[in-house]
Amino acid sequence: MGGAADVKPTRRFIAPVSECEFTLQSVLEEVTLDEEKRERGKRPQRALGAAIGIATGLLAESHASQGGRVLVFTSGPCTMGPGTVVGTDMGENLRSHQDLEKNASKHYKEACKYYNAIGIRLATNSHTLDVFACSLDQVGLAEMKIAVDQTGGVMFLAEQFRAETFRQSLAKLFARDPKNGALEMRFNGTFSVFCTPQVMVCGAIGPISALAVKSQRISENEIGLGQTTSWRMCSFTPSTTIAVYYEVVNQHSNPIPHGQPFFLQFCTRYKLSDGTIRLRVTTIARRWVESSSAPEIVGGFDQEACAVLMARIATFRTENEESFDLLRWLDRTLIRVGSKFGEYQRDAPDSFRMPPTMSIYPQFMFHLRRSQFLQTANNSPDETAFYRIMLTRETVTTSLVMIQPTLLSYSFNGAPQPVLLDVSAITPDTILLLDSYFLIVVHRGSTIAGWHREGYQDQPEHEAFRALLASPVRDAQALAAERCPTPRLVECNQGGSQARFLLAKLNPSATHNTSANGYGAQQGGGEYIFTDDISLSVFLEHLSKLAVSS
Q1: Which residues, in sequence order, are bridge partners of residue 491?
Q2: Which UniProt keywords apply (predicted)?
Q3: What is the pLDDT of residue 526?
Q4: Closest CA to 151 of 72, 78, 217, 266
Q5: Of 42, 50, 204, 454, which cross-links 81 as Cys (Cβ 3.0–4.6 Å)?
Q6: pLDDT tens figures, 307-329
Q7: pLDDT tens-digit profile of 210-239?
């Protein structure tokens, strides 16, 4: 040591950028493809869990309780050591949703336990775990999700590291404020809530971990991460959104006067990348109304926010409950809302109407039931983990796009128009732009696709057609540029194999069961969806019958 006894041993591994930038860049430039030869039928030996554990320990020793990130780049699952997801023998398959439901996964519980301990240690020191997984197969995101979630980390999925979406997403993670050049990410944050005596805190859902802060305002009805009024946010961005759930607790013998105000307060303390510490305090004032005063309650109802809050609860509960039970819970809750606030005559389903401020709420619930957050068919556990972790941190507007994607129609008749998320929106002479947040689809109708194959867009006399083709692609690229992680962009034609990405999101108002011949396209070049799922109209009919039933 030569007398430098005060220098931490971890400085051998972690140094300021100013001291190691050239060396690090040289090492990265010299990295080559691993040509390790392995036995046939064997997976590579990959001690990913141990590597994450070592990085966590180094960061904890060198920068305890300071902002820091552990970035993991992996192209395969951990096959040895702690955090093992699957063995090296190819005869052992990676776990599926069916395996998890039947507790038939050999390594899943032990790996989750390990990564939970990693997450706790990271969160205790205000450090973050980010995982960039680029592989055609699963890598173990389902097991690592708990560590990423409680530290506010980023999770990214792609097929290969050469993908442009990977490069763009990594660059966006380190985006800087154009005004001062500082990183937009925030570090070492705490989020605390305060409320009036008649309101109790049930919990919160988001990229947070609970702090052991006791208060008289804690409800016994726990939702999300409860039993506290303060949570740690190891890392977050300006768009990070936390859902807080409350319960009104007031004795009937001591009624609250109508119109009396009450207050909710949110205190967010965090550190900027330049070391500046900030405290942001937000106070909200609302007023009490009688529980029997339905018009006033309905007038203040935010159906978009409510849909996202319900989606977060359902997604959080999928960790310990079956999807079927959660679907029944969503249905029962929706029926109670319709029965209490709807306008109808008893036992007359045709008379049922939801108030204007609640009119779209049943539609949100319909699409939530069909979404990848609650339906695991055709998705791997890693994909499901990625979808769910994103829903619990994004804004209301963005989350609604995840639940109920937006659909725009482009044609020669004028500017792009929003259309219903329904199979009837598919016509031969239009181009559809579907934005589901994770995937952006540009779908060409059969006539448009035929003209495109014939190369009409390359002919000078068809300038309008070239402009029509370019418009949705340009808009799709603009949407993708705003997102982190960057979504995948798919261009497809009506009847093509990749058109399935669009059809999976559309309301099946026309199916093979409703067609005259049971097969083929509709008259006029429309589409049928081959599914046994119920349509939105059928869903609303059942809601009407159950809500008005005596």
Answers
A1: 442
A2: Cytoplasm, Cytoplasmic vesicle, Endoplasmic reticulum, ER-Golgi transport, Golgi apparatus, Membrane, Metal-binding, Protein transport, Transport, Zinc
A3: 65
A4: 72
A5: 50
A6: 999 999 999 999 999 999 999 99
A7: 999 999 999 999 999 999 999 999 999 999
CB under 8 Å to 488, separation ≥6 — which residues?
165, 438, 439, 440
The span from the CA of 513 to the CA of 533, in Å, is 11
Strand partners for 283: 265
Both tokens assigned to 350: 């045709």
Helix axes 536-548, 323-341, angle to 10 degrees: 60
- Dihedral of CA 10/116/135/103: which sign? positive
| CA-closest candidate to residue 48, choices 132, 122, 121, 164 | 132
- Whether CATH 3.40.50.300 fits 10-20+39-174: no
**Which are the contacts of 31, defined by CB distance < 8 A and separation ≥ 6?**
none
Tell me the pLDDT tens digit for each residue of 7-24.
Answer: 567 777 888 888 889 988
Angle at 547 between CA 545 and CA 550, to 5 degrees: 85
Q: How far apart are CA 531 and CA 474, in angstroms?
A: 32
Query: Would you state the structure tokens that stand for residue 77, as one six-digit string?
Result: 């699952």
Q: What is the CA radius of gyration of the chain?
A: 26
- Residue ranges, comma separated, of all CATH 2.60.40.1670 domains in the chain are 180-288
Residues in the chain: 550
pLDDT in tens, 108-119: 999 999 999 999
Q: Name the token pair of 152.
A: 């506010």
Does pTM top 0.85 for this prediction? yes
Look up residue 48 and give its DSSP letter: H
- How far apart are the C-alpha atoms of 501 and 161, rounded to whole Å? 23
